[in-house]
């Protein structure tokens, strides 16, 4: 079993706790209390490795830190994103400001987390509030294409979800697990190769200066 630390970041009320609750308990609460400090939960997913000679199933355990989005808890966040393998940065597609906040979290992660392998997933939540036929009921304030382009430019994974209906939630965690597994596999291969290189006989070519080499110093 592989174990990874995942942190959720984003403005207050965007639905971070609701996303975790949907993923861990498959439930939704219309009247959730705002998180104080942070909450810890864990959940596993199963992924398939079909690249190996023998197809295998791998269990990935997520240790999840759901941080509080209220401004007064902002200074606590580094404690939770430190050593994280993945960050879920959440915004609410009905609140334009919440995308700006998400961008500032992404920037902070890129500046402060000294680990190129950190997987950052940008999530637009509450798609259940958007109607498909573009009428007055449509509460969308952030166009999908705007967030998607930003994600592409910044090398983030991206999708829109609904914690309320559950749409897209499982896929987010599944995709993070698959990405982290591929990264871990690559790191392991690199480590094995460099260990092997360390034990291999060192190939030293001692080149004698040729006598008619004009650059040689000594006669
Ligand atoms: N319609 C709809 N409402 C949602 C969805 N997700 C969350 N909500 C509601 O949005 C409100 C805030 O949800 P939370 O999960 O507490 O938000 P949070 O980001 O954890 O907030 P903080 O703890 O303050 O950081 C609650 O009333 C939820 O019921 C969703 O997908 N659709």
UniProtKB/TrEMBL annotation:
- Region: Disordered, residue numbers: 191-219
The keyword Repeat appears for this protein: yes
- Is GTP-binding found in the keyword set? no
| Record's compositionally biased regions (Polar residues) | 208-219
A Gene Ontology molecular-function term?
GTPase activity
Q: Which Pfam families match?
A: Ras
Q: Which PROSITE patterns match?
A: ARF, RAB, RAS, RHO, ROC
Going by the UniProt record, its keywords in alphabetical order are:
Nucleotide-binding, Repeat
Sequence ranges assigned to domain Roc in this UniProt record: 1-183
Database matches in SMART domains: RAB, RAN, RAS, RHO
Q: Matching InterPro entries, A to Z? A: P-loop_NTPase, ROC, Small_GTP-bd, Small_GTPase
* PANTHER family from the UniProt entry: PTHR47978
Instruction: Tell me what this protein is called.
Output: Similar to Saccharomyces cerevisiae YKR014C YPT52 Rab family GTPase, similar to Ypt51p and Ypt53p and to mammalian rab5
**Provenance organism:** Maudiozyma saulgeensis
């Amino acid at each position: 079993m592989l174990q990874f630390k995942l942190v959720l970041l984003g403005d207050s009320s965007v639905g971070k706790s609701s996303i975790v609750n949907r993923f861990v308990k498959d439930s939704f609460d219309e009247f959730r209390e705002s998180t104080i400090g942070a909450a810890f939960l864990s959940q596993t997913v199963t992924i398939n490795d079909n690249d190996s000679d023998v197809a295998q199933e791998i269990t990935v355990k997520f240790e999840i830190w759901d941080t509080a989005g209220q401004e007064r808890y902002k200074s606590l966040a580094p404690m939770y994103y430190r050593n994280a393998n993945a960050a879920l940065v959440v915004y609410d597609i009905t609140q334009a400001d919440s995308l700006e906040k998400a961008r500032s979290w992404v920037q902070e992660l890129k500046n402060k987390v000294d680990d190129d392998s950190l997987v950052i997933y940008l999530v637009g939540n509450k798609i259940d509030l958007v109607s498909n036929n573009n009428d007055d009921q449509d509460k969308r304030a952030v166009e999908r294409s705007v967030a998607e382009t930003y994600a592409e430019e910044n090398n983030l994974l991206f999708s829109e979800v609904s914690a309320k209906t559950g749409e897209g939630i499982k896929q987010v965690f599944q995709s993070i697990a698959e990405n982290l597994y591929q990264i871990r596999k690559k790191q392991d291969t690199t480590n094995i190769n460099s260990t092997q290189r360390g034990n291999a006989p060192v190939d030293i070519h001692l080149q004698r200066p040729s006598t008619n080499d004009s650059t040689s110093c000594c006669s």
